[in-house]
Every structure is written in C-alpha cells, then in structure tokens.
C-alpha cells in the first residue's frame, strides 16, 4: 500500500508539474489580455504628449514657412533678403519633426471619442492653414514687418513649449526660438544697419 501511495503521489506530482510548465497547452487556460504595468502606461502617456508637442511645433513652423512663401510670391524683389531666412525656417521645420517617438498602444487603444476629437482638431487646423494663406501687404516694408511679427509669434510658441518638452527636444526648441528672434531682428532692425 505504501508503494501504490508513493506511485500515485509521484504520478500526481508529475502531472501537476507538467500542467504548470505548459500552461498554454491546456484548453481550459486561455490567456486573457495582459494588463499594462504602471511604467508602460506612463511611457505611452509621455510618448503621446511628445508626439502632440512635436505636431504643434511643426505646425507653427510650417505656418511660418507658408508666410515666407506668400511674401516671396507677392514681393519677388525681396528674394535676396528672404530666401536665406526661408531656407533656415524650412530646416527648422524639418528638424522639429524628425526623431519623433512613435506612439504604439501598449494594450488598449485610446478611446474612439478622444481619437476622433484629436483628429478633427488637427484636421481642422490643417485645412484652415492650407485653405487660407495669410494675406501679404502690398507695401514691401509692411510685408517685412508682418513677417517679423510672425517670426516673433512662432518664436514665442516654441519658447512656451519648453516647459513640457523632453530635454533634447527642449534644446532644439530653444535654438529654433532664438533663431526666430534673430530672424525678426534681421527683417526689421537689421535692414536699417
């Protein structure tokens, strides 16, 4: 009886070990969706915030680039003065959009309402900026002053974003904001010197 009891115990132990070692092999134990850890949730939140910040920064710089294009189209005689600044703004726009984090949902996708609202807002602002280019003043001096004001506004936008930007992106934003302030000076005061 002791032999049979030991064999039964040994057989039961092997069966239990096999069941725990191969949990995916049993039909009764189907794995459910894995809940994300706090670190994964935080990482996804930070990535979404950075992606939104990059989108706002790039959008502001693209709007400024469109202003340069409109001014150049309205006043071709200003091309020697505006072309180098426009090239710089184009490089800034590209740099602000590069290296962004890709937001991947860790487990569950964001709510459809939040996604639809964010998409609608981004689409509406993109359509508004694409469909209504900023009017350019007929007077070249006034057009330069308006372009300088747009540079200052964009520079202020980048400066305000420094508070929430991750360190590397904050350094880039600070550099672009400083360049924008220099451009504003060159468009107005720099011409007098």
* Uncertain stretches of 5 or more adjacent residues: 102-131
Biggest sheet layout: none
| Individual helix count | 7
Shape assignment: elongated
Structural class: mainly alpha
- Determine Rg (CA atoms, Å): 29 Å
Percentage of residues in DSSP E strands: under 5%
Instruction: Report the helical percentage.
Output: over 70%
- Quantity of strands, as a count: 0
Run of helices and strands: HHHHHHH
What integer is the average pLDDT? 78
From the N-terminal CA to the C-terminal CA, the straight-line distance is 109 Å
Can you characterise this structure?
Helices cover about 75% and strands about 0% of the residues. The protein is mostly helical. α2 packs antiparallel against α3 and α5 runs antiparallel to α6. It is elongated and about 105 Å long. The model is unreliable at about 100-130 (pLDDT under 50).
